[in-house]
Amino acid sequence: MKKIACVLIAAAAVTVAAIPSPAAAAVERTPRCTSVRPSPDFYAGGRVASTPIDARCTTVSISHVRDVARPSDRCQTFLVALLSADGRDPTYTEPVRVCSPSTRTRTVIATGVPAGSQFRVLYQVDYLEQSVRFTVWR
Fold first, then answer.
1. Which of 70, 89, 90, 87 is nearest to 79 (CA)?
2. Phi and psi of 38, rounded to 5°?
3. 115 three-class SS
4. 27-71 confidence digits (pLDDT tens)
5. 3-state helix, strand, coil in the chain (%, to 5)
6. Which terminus in the chain has less CB density within 10 A, N or C?
7. 132 close to 69: Cβ distance less than 8 angstroms
8. pLDDT, tens digit, for every residue of 106-134?
9. Which pTM does this prediction carry?
10. List of E strands, 7-131
11. What per-residue string of b and e applies to 101-123 under the rule 16 or more CB within 10 Å gives b?
């Protein structure tokens, strides 16, 4: 009788462990953050804006910063323009200085970004005709 009870309890424990919790199911459905190298779209007010980017996660991070004309310059100031679905003016984050001393370094420049929304990444220009390459993790 004791052996049967132990087997039944063990079987019940395995069955319960196999049923995912609602929180675990939500994590599985959340898309992974991926990277993109955005193209420049326009220049205004001393900043270069990227083409619109679709948010896949709730943070926006930057890595692989490099000034094309000065490859040793791996720092730049970035901010995010959150685009509204109804065409109103975008909401801007505070500027963040980002340096990429290695390819593994990512710097978060925005949090709480609604999944599925669109945004632009802008960088502050240091000199005329500057071209900065970077990767956006979204």
1. 90
2. -70, 155
3. coil
4. 445 567 899 999 999 999 999 999 999 999 899 999 999 999 999
5. 20, 40, 40
6. N
7. no
8. 999 999 998 889 999 999 999 988 999 99
9. 0.74
10. 35-36, 40-44, 47-50, 53-54, 59-67, 75-83, 91-92, 96-99, 107-111, 118-124
11. eeeeebbebbeebeeeebbbbbb
